[in-house]
What we know:
elongated, 139 residues, 2 domains, three-stranded antiparallel β-sheet
Amino acid sequence: MQISVSSTLTVYHDGQFWVGLAEHVEGGRYGAARIVFGAEPSNEEILRFVVNKWAKLSFFGHDSTEASKPAKNPKRRAREAAKALKQPAMSTKAQQALANQRETMKRESAQARSQRRADEAEARFEQRKLKRKQKHRGH
């Protein structure tokens, strides 16, 4: 008999804290656990959490049979966590559209900033040229 096991960890900001939603499906049973990180966790902190504390999460309530089962290999859990972090988070079309709009505006503002700096540098150069010319004429 083969039991399918699937786990996911979704990290999001709920307006006040960074929260992780751990979902676990094992043999047709669905369980979830909520983890409050507080400040925005780095990839390393998330990886450390998955490797060290994932097996201790209680997905199906206080079930004594779940606690006695051996945990998966920690190296395998670390590889799976790293693989999951590389995949882009699922988002709605509206969120993707807003992200594209932000990227476009960021690119445009960077180009405008670059052009403004070049114009200012050119103006400073012209000012220096004019000053040198006036000094040369004895003014």
